What does this fold into?
Amino acid sequence: MLKKFIIIGAASLMALTAVPQSFAQTIQLGPNGVRLVEPERMDRRDRRERDRRDEISERQAVRIAKSEGVRTVDDVRKTRSRYVIEGLDRRGNDIEVSIDRRNGDVISVN
It folds into this structure.
């Protein structure tokens, strides 16, 4: 009888510890079909996609730089957090404008 209670107790304990693990994954429907996604992976992917959607485009960065005095654009570099637009101003002098990729704020004009 004692063995029966131990076996039932161990089985119920294993069943209870297995339940939270089954809820740790999420089902995601997308262009690649149905997938099981770990929550932390889904959060990172969603964050990356949201950041890409929220950032300004290269074309918008060039427009902002032109409003800061750039007349001829020579080079556009994309770093982790900003666009760096190099070019010439109306007098022919070199100018470099750094623009925040997320909100379009001008960081510096050199």
